[in-house]
Specification:
It is built from 18 helices and eleven strands. By secondary structure, the protein is an alpha/beta fold. It has two domains: 256 residues, P-loop containing nucleotide triphosphate hydrolases (Rossmann fold, 3-Layer(aba) Sandwich); 88 residues, Arc Repressor Mutant, subunit A, CATH 1.10.10. It has a four-stranded parallel β-sheet with strand order 3-6-2-7, sandwiched between helices. The protein has a three-stranded parallel β-sheet with strand order 1-8-9. Strands 4-5 form a two-stranded antiparallel sheet.
Length: 445
């Protein structure tokens, strides 16, 4: 991870430092996500660019259980309360499409944490579970309505009084701002994901960060008061308005147009975003064959929203070139990391998942390779599937030249020869065996 992406320019850099200092299990990349979510929540409905980019963003932290994901929730909510902005803390779970709209009617600008997000995706993938599927659709629509109007599904007005019908007509949110921080483990996330989640555009609305730190020992931390300069910035960001005046700090009703402070994109920032859009188009065309092109389609819009947050964090009068460059680097670095994870783990069906697990484990094993015994220890999907499917997976991967069965170096120098499956790159530096050595069966154990 590039060093400059482990903090945020301006006041939000203090938030990153505070999150890291107070975490019993530090996760530097998640600390940056928490700081950006904090800025997004504070600026919701109060700021936009002259290109109609609003600060509402969805973030996802992916890490193993016990790695320290939960601290981001505590940190953002604690900082909001310390700044007197507890009103921005939203719900912890949406149970239906109407619950998304109702929550935003109550709080048109809010920060919500969705824990165990992978389980929600698993539930939504069940064929007859329309409630969770419609909830995801509502969240998708909310992201895209940041510069528009979020309206609920139509209901019959038959039998309603004129007053009730009038109240129903007011159930809309103008310029909704939902900042969402989702947390999940890799296992539950990828068990609930299929290629449909990529194609329908739900997954590409998230800035997803995959932890490069596994489980770690907890450390003792001392209580650290939030920096007063950061709290002052948060209050200023949350009370900004184009007209100013004594009433600027008041919340604007959900069915009324907010009065945001408009920040222009300077010429340097516009050039950065034009170059990024060109790169995103080329990258999307390259990813078509893999079925992952949609993962790139919203990256320019994400970078523009993020650049607005960074510019405000730095108290710039415009979105400057350096703001745009940082936002571009952050969005695209994590987009490429996310693509790498999806290639390895996104699967449609049990057999596809088994093949990808075996291919990933063999590739990660390097020159040492993976024996049947190694696979049995390392892969739950290998252990869970029947003998015939394991054999078919190995044959399929060999036909694709994704793995090769060969003799590998025995590090001890003693005992019988060691044969294992290795990735083609690793196999090229090892003397290959005769094709007849390929096993004709896999042990049921």
């Amino acid at each position: 991870m590039p060093a400059h992406l482990l903090s945020v320019p301006g006041a939000l850099g203090q938030a990153v430092a505070w999150v890291n200092a107070t975490s019993r299990k530090p996760q530097p990349m998640f600390a940056v996500q928490a700081a950006l979510a904090l800025g997004s929540a504070c600026m919701g409905r109060r700021w936009r660019t002259d290109n109609a980019n609003w600060p509402a963003l969805y973030f996802m932290n992916v890490g193993p259980s016990g790695a320290g994901k939960e601290h981001a929730k505590y940190a953002v909510e604690t900082l909001l309360e310390a700044a007197g902005l507890a009103r921005l803390v939203g719900v912890g779970r949406f149970v239906s499409e109407s619950s998304v709209v109702s929550s935003l009617i109550d709080k048109p600008a809010q920060f919500s944490v969705l824990d165990e997000f992978g389980k929600m995706l698993q539930s939504a993938s069940i064929a007859q579970n329309f409630a969770d599927r419609n909830t995801l659709k509502a969240l998708m629509e909310t992201w895209g309505r940041a510069d528009g109007v979020l309206r609920p599904a139509a209901y019959s007005t038959a039998g309603l009084s004129s007053k009730q019908a009038e109240e129903l007509a007011k159930r809309l949110v103008r310029k909704p701002s939902l900042t969402m921080l989702a947390m999940t483990t890799p296992e539950t996330l990828f068990e609930g994901l299929t290629s449909a989640a990529v194609v329908d555009g739900f997954l590409n609305r998230f800035i997803s960060v995959h932890s490069d730190r596994g489980r770690q020992l907890a450390r003792t931390v001392e209580a650290v008061a939030p920096p007063e300069e950061l709290l002052a910035w948060m209050r200023d960001a949350a009370s900004a308005a184009a007209s100013g005046g004594n009433l600027a700090c008041l919340q604007v009703a959900h069915d009324m147009e907010p009065d945001p402070k408009v920040m222009a994109l300077d010429a340097g920032a516009l050039r950065v975003f034009a170059e990024l859009e060109h790169h995103v188009l080329q990258r999307s065309n390259q990813l078509d064959a893999e079925g992952l092109a949609e993962m790139m389609t919203r990256r320019t819009e994400m970078a523009m929203r993020l650049a607005l947050i960074v510019a405000c964090s730095c108290r710039h009068s415009k979105v400057m070139r350096q703001d745009a460059e940082w936002a571009r680097d952050y969005v695209m670095t994590h987009a490429e990391r996310d693509l790498s994870m999806l290639r390895d783990r996104l699967a449609d069906g049990v057999f596809d998942k088994l093949c990808k697990d075996v291919s990933r484990l063999v590739r990660e094993s390097g020159k040492r390779g993976m024996t049947e015994r190694d696979l049995n220890k390392a892969s739950r999907s290998w252990r869970a599937n029947p003998l015939r499917m394991r054999e078919d997976a190995l044959r399929a991967l060999e036909r694709r030249h994704a793995i090769a069965y060969t003799e590998v170096e025995n590090t001890s120098g003693r005992g019988r020869k060691r044969f294992a499956w290795v990735a083609p790159g690793a196999a090229s530096s090892i003397t290959p065996t005769n094709a007849d050595k390929t096993p004709t069966h896999v042990s049921p154990q």
